[in-house]
Amino acid sequence: MTETKPRLRAAPLWTTSGPWLNTPKGEPLALADLRGRVVVALGFQMLCPGCVGHALPQLARVRRAFHPARVAVVGLHTVFEHHAANTPETLAAFAHEYRLDFPIGIDATDPRGGRTPVTMAAYAMQGTPTLLLIDAEGRLRRQNFGHVEDIALGAEIALLVAEAGGAPAGPSDVAASAAAHGRCAIP
Amino acid sequence: MTETKPRLRAAPLWTTSGPWLNTPKGEPLALADLRGRVVVALGFQMLCPGCVGHALPQLARVRRAFHPARVAVVGLHTVFEHHAANTPETLAAFAHEYRLDFPIGIDATDPRGGRTPVTMAAYAMQGTPTLLLIDAEGRLRRQNFGHVEDIALGAEIALLVAEAGGAPAGPSDVAASAAAHGRCAIP
Amino acid sequence: MTETKPRLRAAPLWTTSGPWLNTPKGEPLALADLRGRVVVALGFQMLCPGCVGHALPQLARVRRAFHPARVAVVGLHTVFEHHAANTPETLAAFAHEYRLDFPIGIDATDPRGGRTPVTMAAYAMQGTPTLLLIDAEGRLRRQNFGHVEDIALGAEIALLVAEAGGAPAGPSDVAASAAAHGRCAIP
Amino acid sequence: MTETKPRLRAAPLWTTSGPWLNTPKGEPLALADLRGRVVVALGFQMLCPGCVGHALPQLARVRRAFHPARVAVVGLHTVFEHHAANTPETLAAFAHEYRLDFPIGIDATDPRGGRTPVTMAAYAMQGTPTLLLIDAEGRLRRQNFGHVEDIALGAEIALLVAEAGGAPAGPSDVAASAAAHGRCAIP
After folding, report:
1. Smallest Cβ distance to C50: which of D162, D175, D182?
2. Coil, strand or helix: which one is B169?
3. Do C86 and B84 count as a contact with CB atoms less than 8 A apart?
4. Is residue D175 classed as helix, strand or coil in its secondary structure?
């Protein structure tokens, strides 16, 4: 198994334009800055119903379930349609209203004038939402267009975290939220 | 970390009465029979709304996400109220209608006449639903009364699977279901 | 329009066995007792997932939305499968756990030994859940097998209530619940 | 009852700026144009999560449940925050992606420079979503800030439709959708 790992491809760098949301002074966040942590990145568009209804809320659940020292969550606004509608001002208002508080960068416009932005093309994304799982050494381990079930996503992230830790991380690293809702208690 | 493991308590045995559902000829399934696999067991009651609405559907998602050679799913019908209503016939009909096709045993009645059945008492369960995670060596690693988020549960199961495998299991062991629903595709 | 109404068929009587749930002393409730009120009756089985997951919660919403002096809600336990599992004790426990507090009668067993109970046969119900709308004069106005959208159901009930009132009932008869959840308020 | 009706206040006119969405050539739609039909109008903002997640999908269900000759559905984009983000281009893209195909007008900016747009002020709306029910004679019958249950909304609309029809409209005017999902059928 170990000999297959060197063949994993490094995740393409992302190329963004303008300031980021939710970083100090809007400084861009580079993939290299996150080395040592598992990265869960989402290519999304704020006008994509599947992103708003499913993928972005799932990203919030990822943040709740994993410690930020182990797992970094990143949004990439990969706009390939309705370019005029997707201004930075609108994205900032969207992020504010939907309480998105993780770093979000704006995928850079194709310098040759195409509709598909640079990072989206570098990953050959088919559309939005696209989820990227990048391991602690910066290698792309999964790319997924569309919905992924929470239980499978939690499993994959945990294995990448364990892999990065040398010794596997114990379950105590993982937050489990037990809700009183719907329980039948012995009186 | 390795030195702490021997101190983990072995999961109590479960004690059931009568035939099981979904085992060959209704033969009881013992915890020892599952050694080598991670066990996800659920203490439930068929008349507990939180079990029916949340915990049992989650168990079905666990089955979909993990390979049965790695993860065994078990139901324990731990009745502590409405004993007269919870007949084996009703449980069988319930399991049939809700398409529960994993092994289900009926927790044995307290021989001293108490309301709490034997396995429920052995685990000191507070009520239903109660989720048990037992590692491949038969040690109880988590016990949870009430709802657990899918993403955290998937993470915990995956780590126990990895732990059992010597080398960590790769993400390829985990089924990811990507649905076309709600995607915005590049035309 | 008025001349077509006399041709509407009277709703078949229902025939139940044993005491009712949620009536004084378990006295049976006859359709004639409800004359003057619109009746929303549900043929259900406690082991039918669609009844538990959708139709019974909808019935609770009907009760919240309409005044009990105008609209009566009734459950009919119409068992056509798993007869041995559906004991009165189990139904009582089910109703208790699911907080069903409207009158529920048990459809009488076919005296000729068939699987379909008497009321279910009288209405030629195809299965469960089956919703019956009966007007204030005891005439069957709608019979529906499966899910009905809340908005259409609310509309139909309201029209039957208005019809019964001589002058149409005003919107003030209808409870509207506005929740603060998800509102964006002017600061 | 009839003598109280003349006292109902006429709904304020709405004042919009620029072309409408989903009208012929973007022509503005005036409230007077809808006389004879019940009007269900929604004050919303495309960046308000409660509007996107709840109120706009509910409006789509209203359209499915009632005949367009009886009930007109109208959207009013009442922007009171993030003005720079809410451009007409973004609204058009939003409406396209979310498949909003009913007429939508943009509430006119306050000529005195305030944040609250003209129609929003005329109705004294507290925020978004705000639902307006206007009867066939153009009188405001309900104004609601926040979520309303479908069953109550369906009831109120139906009564206004019946009121407008002289003779009450029969239930046959109302579409009921019965889904096979979750049904237990007699074999």
Report:
1. D182
2. coil
3. no
4. coil
Cα separation, D104 vs D22, whole angstroms: 7
Per the CB < 8 Å rule, is B128 touching A153? Answer: no
Q: What is the ipTM of this complex?
A: 0.88
Please list every residue in chain C whose beta carbon sits closer than 8 Å to the beta carbon of residue D178. 144-148
Q: Is the CB of residue A145 less than 8 Å from the CB of residue B110?
A: no
| Nearest CB neighbour to A179, from listed B1, B142, B147 | B147
- From B96, B39, B45, select the one nearest B63 (Cα to Cα): B39
Q: pLDDT tens digits for A81-137?
A: 999 999 999 999 999 999 999 999 999 999 999 999 999 999 999 999 999 999 999
Q: What is the pLDDT of residues C15-68, one digit of tens each?
A: 999 999 999 999 999 999 999 999 999 999 999 999 999 999 999 999 999 999
Distance between terminal CA atoms of chain C? 52
| HSE-CB for C48 with a 13 A CA cutoff | 28
Evaluate the CA torsion angle C21, C24, C28, C31 in order and state its sign.
negative
Residue C91: both structure tokens together: 């139904």
What is the C-alpha to C-alpha distance for residues C170 and D1, in angstroms, rounded to an integer? 9
Residue D92: how many other CB atoms lie within 10 Å: 16
Residue C85 Cα, gap to closest chain B Cα (Å): 4
pTM across the whole model: 0.89
Q: Are strands B71-77 and B104-106 parallel, antiparallel or unpaired?
A: parallel
Contacts B85 to C, Cβ<8 Å: 87, 89-90, 92-94
Is the CATH code 3.40.50.2020 the one for domain B2-25+34-180? no
**What are B122's two structure tokens?**
């052995």
For residue B93, give the nearest of C85, C93, C96 by CB distance. Answer: C85
User: How far apart (Å, rounded) are the C-alpha atoms in residues C2 and B180?
Assistant: 51
Query: Within 10 A of B169 (CB to CB), how many other CB atoms are there?
Result: 22
